[in-house]
């Protein structure tokens, strides 16, 4: 009996020792070090919790995310690295509910163009980066609002306008948030929407104004502001269409000509820091609108898309993500090739661009001309 009890006690001690070792390896830092990291992270991200007990609750989520980061980064030969991004105090469910609101629904059947249909024998550049051509506005931040669809749409239009007119004009997501909610548009402000429907609005509205004229407020509670288009700067597009669906080579051809709006499944991009993201993610479903602004290949031979996100410049690679390209599935990794969509604009459709001061000056010249007749 005594021998049996001794064996039980020994087994318990060994199990406790084993569990203690497992717990110790969950994070490389002590509790005090993690607490210091958390306080530093709070300052860097300007976080301030008001609810009773909220800071402690967020700290526990922060610790869980830190363990995940360390576990991922400890595996040799990873193609990408995770880090303590601005979302490190959010659970996956919270992150999904707040930031992943993209939708693929449109009010009519999509027009699938063949201008960018890849054909055997097509010669495409090995790499493209529209940032180098000045066709990509600085990374923006949608904040705690599911307005990714608006940022994806403006990003594609900004790039196309630069290519066609030579001028990069930063456009208003808030005009889309406030005004593209009439009838059956399919867009719902912070609750989500699609870039295709945003393009439809821009066409029907006769253009979209700049974000300086109509600044972003991170909410969708305001009524649509009436903007007098003849007295401000604005950008027009003629139409829009889809690139061939589920075809990475056609997407590559499209991106070689202009920035392209796409959807990706982005749940596991929450803590992305750098490198070529390979997943895990769903390849048949999208929940986040972004803009593909280029593509390339790393020195190690890893093909990637250059994704401009709308989570601020302090996420990822200064606001960008490299997403694995030439994936084994026709949808592309994380569904990037499921349904690319892009605006169209003729070289002569300059719907841009008189500032109020220039407009008044033009009117003055016209009046002077009439007076001299």
TrEMBL record:
<keyword id="KW-0812">Transmembrane</keyword>
<dbReference type="GO" id="GO:0048767">
    <property type="term" value="P:root hair elongation"/>
</dbReference>
<keyword id="KW-0472">Membrane</keyword>
<keyword id="KW-1133">Transmembrane helix</keyword>
<dbReference type="GO" id="GO:0051603">
    <property type="term" value="P:proteolysis involved in protein catabolic process"/>
</dbReference>
<dbReference type="InterPro" id="IPR039417">
    <property type="entry name" value="Peptidase_C1A_papain-like"/>
</dbReference>
<keyword id="KW-1015">Disulfide bond</keyword>
<keyword id="KW-0732">Signal</keyword>
<protein>
    <submittedName>
        <fullName>BnaA05g20650D protein</fullName>
    </submittedName>
</protein>
<keyword id="KW-0378">Hydrolase</keyword>
<dbReference type="InterPro" id="IPR013128">
    <property type="entry name" value="Peptidase_C1A"/>
</dbReference>
<comment type="similarity">
    <text>Belongs to the peptidase C1 family.</text>
</comment>
<dbReference type="InterPro" id="IPR025661">
    <property type="entry name" value="Pept_asp_AS"/>
</dbReference>
<dbReference type="InterPro" id="IPR000668">
    <property type="entry name" value="Peptidase_C1A_C"/>
</dbReference>
<dbReference type="Pfam" id="PF00112">
    <property type="entry name" value="Peptidase_C1"/>
</dbReference>
<feature type="signal peptide">
    <location>
        <begin position="1"/>
        <end position="24"/>
    </location>
</feature>
<dbReference type="InterPro" id="IPR000169">
    <property type="entry name" value="Pept_cys_AS"/>
</dbReference>
<dbReference type="Pfam" id="PF08246">
    <property type="entry name" value="Inhibitor_I29"/>
</dbReference>
<dbReference type="InterPro" id="IPR038765">
    <property type="entry name" value="Papain-like_cys_pep_sf"/>
</dbReference>
<dbReference type="GO" id="GO:0005764">
    <property type="term" value="C:lysosome"/>
</dbReference>
<keyword id="KW-0788">Thiol protease</keyword>
<feature type="domain" description="Peptidase C1A papain C-terminal">
    <location>
        <begin position="124"/>
        <end position="344"/>
    </location>
</feature>
<keyword id="KW-0645">Protease</keyword>
<feature type="domain" description="Cathepsin propeptide inhibitor">
    <location>
        <begin position="38"/>
        <end position="95"/>
    </location>
</feature>
<dbReference type="InterPro" id="IPR013201">
    <property type="entry name" value="Prot_inhib_I29"/>
</dbReference>
<dbReference type="GO" id="GO:0005615">
    <property type="term" value="C:extracellular space"/>
</dbReference>
<feature type="transmembrane region" description="Helical">
    <location>
        <begin position="350"/>
        <end position="372"/>
    </location>
</feature>
<dbReference type="GO" id="GO:0004197">
    <property type="term" value="F:cysteine-type endopeptidase activity"/>
</dbReference>
């Amino acid at each position: 009996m005594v021998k049996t009890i001794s064996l039980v006690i020994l087994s318990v001690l060994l199990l406790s020792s084993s569990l203690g070792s497992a717990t110790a390896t969950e994070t490389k830092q002590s509790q005090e070090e993690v607490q210091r990291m958390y306080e530093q992270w709070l300052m860097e991200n300007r976080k301030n919790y008001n609810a009773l007990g909220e800071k402690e609750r967020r700290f526990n989520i922060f610790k869980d995310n830190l363990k995940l980061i360390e576990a991922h980064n400890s595996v040799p030969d990873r193609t990408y690295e995770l880090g303590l991004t601005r979302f490190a105090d959010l659970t996956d469910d919270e992150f999904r509910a707040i930031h992943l609101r993209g939708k693929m629904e449109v009010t009519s059947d999509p027009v699938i163009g063949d201008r960018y249909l890849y054909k055997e024998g097509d010669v495409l550049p090995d790499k493209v980066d529209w940032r180098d051509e000045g066709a990509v506005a600085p990374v923006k931040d949608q904040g705690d609002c599911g307005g990714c669809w608006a940022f994806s749409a403006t990003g594609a239009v900004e790039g196309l306008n630069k290519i066609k007119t030579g001028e990069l004009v930063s456009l208003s997501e808030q005009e889309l948030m406030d005004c593209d909610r009439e009838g059956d548009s399919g867009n719902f402000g912070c609750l989500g929407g699609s870039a295709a429907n945003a393009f439809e609005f821009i066409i029907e509205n006769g253009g979209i104004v700049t974000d300086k004229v109509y600044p972003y407020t991170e909410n969708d509670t305001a009524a649509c502001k009436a903007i007098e288009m003849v007295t401000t700067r604005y950008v027009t597009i003629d139409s829009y269409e889809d690139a061939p669906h589920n075809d990475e080579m056609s997407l590559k051809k499209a991106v070689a000509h202009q920035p392209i709006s796409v959807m990706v499944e982005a749940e596991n991009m929450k803590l992305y820091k750098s490198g070529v993201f390979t997943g895990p993610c769903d390849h048949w479903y999208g929940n986040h609108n972004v803009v593909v602004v280029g593509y390339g290949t790393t020195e190690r031979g890893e093909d990637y898309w250059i994704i401009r996100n709308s989570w601020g410049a302090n996420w990822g690679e200064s606001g960008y993500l490299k997403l694995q390209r030439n994936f084994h599935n026709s949808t592309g990794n994380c569904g990037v090739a499921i349904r690319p969509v892009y605006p169209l604009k003729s070289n002569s459709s300059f719907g841009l661009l008189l500032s109020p001061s220039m407009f008044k000056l033009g009117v003055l010249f016209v009046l002077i001309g009439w007076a001299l007749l």
